Amino acid sequence: LQYWGGACAVTGIALPEVLRASHARPWAECASDAERLDVFNGLLLVAHLDALFDRFLISFDDAGRILIAQRVSDEDRQRLGLTASLALRWLTDEHRAYLAWHRGRWEQGNS
Question: What is the pTM for the complete model shown?
Answer without folding.
Answer: 0.94
